[in-house]
Specification:
Order of helices and strands: EHEEHEHEHH
Radius of gyration: 15 Å
Number of helices: 5
Number of domains: 1
CATH superfamily: Aldolase class I
Shape: globular
Helix content: 25-40%
Number of strands: 5
Strand order of the largest sheet: 1-2-3-4-5
CATH class: Alpha Beta
Structural class: alpha/beta
Length: 142
């Protein structure tokens, strides 16, 4: 995890600033992209081979489009870093991890110990998601 307790990756952090989706698609040398609410994440799929970091902004905690964006990226085979930025709440970290987020840069500080507790609150899941958790029904019935 390194120096950032809200980053759950072992690779080095991207060192270049993320650019907008529109700017990313117009450049050939960018490898970090920022997705704003309303951006169509599917436009990024043909360029995933050069993406190192995707920052998905949450302008308000009520805006759930970022969850779908992360899941779409993971289902398309993207294995790079997906960072949630903006109005990221402690209560949503576990769900964000299940959708494919592996780092967080919230507007308001989150205590690392509280984050750890939130992320480990539920030992079992009921359905498949973008993470590797095995649903409880499959554990019970093979």
């Amino acid at each position: 995890m390194g120096d950032n307790p809200l980053r759950f990756r072992d690779d080095a952090q991207a060192d270049e600033p993320a650019v907008s989706l529109e700017a990313f698609l117009q450049q050939s040398n960018a490898n970090s992209v920022r997705i704003e609410a309303g951006d169509d994440i599917r436009l990024l799929i043909p360029a995933l081979d050069r993406v190192r970091l995707v920052e998905i902004d949450f302008p308000k905690f009520r805006d759930g489009r970022g969850f779908s964006s992360a899941r779409i990226l993971r289902e398309a085979g993207y294995t790079g870093e997906i960072k949630a930025t903006g109005d990221v709440l402690l209560d949503l970290l576990w769900f964000m991890r299940r959708c494919g987020f592996d780092s967080f840069a919230p507007d308001s500080q989150i205590d690392p110990a509280e984050a750890e507790t939130a992320l480990n609150r539920y030992p079992h899941v009921y359905q498949h998601a973008a993470d590797d958790a095995v649903p409880i029904w499959k554990l019970r019935h093979g």
